[in-house]
Automatic annotation (TrEMBL):
One of its GO terms (molecular function) is riboflavin reductase (NADPH) activity. Gene3D superfamilies: NAD(P)-binding Rossmann-like Domain. PANTHER family: FLAVIN REDUCTASE (NADPH). It comes from the Bacteria. This is NAD(P)H-binding protein. It holds the Pfam family NAD_binding_10. Residues 7-192 form the NAD(P)-binding domain.
Length: 248
């Protein structure tokens, strides 16, 4: 399968590229700096461009079977309409080139997923991440309103843990605490979806099933969940400010 990958140099995007290459896909990485993937040698094609430019994306997308976007920010506090502008460019480019399949990575807490997030998460989403998530919400709705065969993916809090090869996905997942999922497993879900098409025209929330909680009936589990709530702010600030770790 010929795949164009936006955000290929980010942590989740890089996991996706590596997995796609190992699976035998023909991958084109759409990047601002081709040198960032120089170590992949001839394993992937490199297309230099700006994700906010329809002309650049269209030039790279022509001849591909699907587009996968793992675009993210270098710091989570910035909001410059990256996602709004990139979604418009991507939709226009897809329509121009006839590439109808799109798997788009968003963030848990954006749009309708805000309603099923915890109280602590809601506080973060409407303060520190307010502008960024507003930008993402507009982008997500533009994609859902397009004529593409889209899937918008909402992972819970991302970690750098290893791929476990498992995830729980659903249109609506009521949760408690601060569930997580590794970037490697998010990439695996997106790769499976671009090939399988189970979630076309749907917006799945995905999380590690071992941390997924519908009902809490065990005090030890509940205590662990509360601890996760209390450490959520620290984890977010450390990842977004201290290490400047992208959200995706």
């Amino acid at each position: 399968m010929k795949l164009l990958v936006l955000g290929a140099t980010g942590p989740t995007g890089r996991h996706f590229v590596d997995l796609a290459v190992r699976s035998g896909d023909s991958v084109t990485a759409f990047v601002r700096d081709p040198g960032a993937l120089a170590e992949l040698g001839g394993q992937v094609a490199l297309a230099k461009g700006d994700a906010k430019s329809q002309r650049d994306v269209a030039a790279a997308a022509a001849g591909h079977d699907a587009i996968v976007s793992a675009l993210g920010r270098s710091t989570s506090m910035q909001a410059d309409e990256l996602f709004t502008r990139a979604s418009s460019a991507l939709i226009g480019a897809a329509e121009e080139t006839g590439v109808s399949r799109l798997v788009w990575l968003s963030s848990f807490g954006v749009g309708a997923t805000y309603e099923v997030s915890s109280a602590t998460q809601k506080l973060i989403y409407r303060t520190l991440l307010r502008a960024l998530y507003a930008d993402k919400a507009i982008a997500d709705e533009r994609i859902r309103s397009s004529g593409l065969d889209w899937t918008v993916v909402y992972p819970t809090r991302l970690t750098d843990g290893p791929a476990m090869g498992r995830f729980h996905a659903g249109d609506h997942l009521p949760m408690r605490g601060n569930p997580t999922i590794s970037r490697a497993d998010v990439a695996a879900f997106m790769h499976r979806e671009v090939h399988g098409g189970t979630w076309i025209h749907r917006s799945p929330v995905i999380t590690d099933p071992s941390l997924f909680v519908l009902l809490v009936g065990n005090r030890e589990i509940y205590r662990d969940i509360c601890h996760g709530e209390l450490t959520f702010i620290t984890a977010l600030l450390e990842s977004s400010i201290t290490s400047r770790r992208p959200l995706v």
